[in-house]
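Record type: monomer structure entry
Structure origin: computed from sequence
Chain ID: A
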Amino acid sequence: MTTSSAGPIALYGFLTAKPGHADVLRRRLADLVEPSRGHEGNLQYHLHEQSDGRFFLYEQWRSQADLDRHNATEVLREFLAEAPEHLDGGPEAYFGELLSSPVG
């Protein structure tokens, strides 16, 4: 996923676990939080669990280049390689230019 924006980028979406895979998916998603927060250009990285069992990720990145670097990291590539085993369908993902100032 890319956008032509030079400013902050917001990336967010929902992931649904296959039946019986919620615990594994929850753990694998949680394992992404701290490493992702440490990647250059990360402004925010949050994981939520919805009452219906879906997982919601919200990320803010300083620029598209920072998001591209994050997407190329080993930790994310490993997650994406194994995700289809645990996901019921693909991720429902959205991204766009951040129009309000990032918090912090």
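Annotation 1: Helices lie at 22-37, 64-71, 74-86.
Annotation 2: DSSP finds three helices and four strands in the chain.
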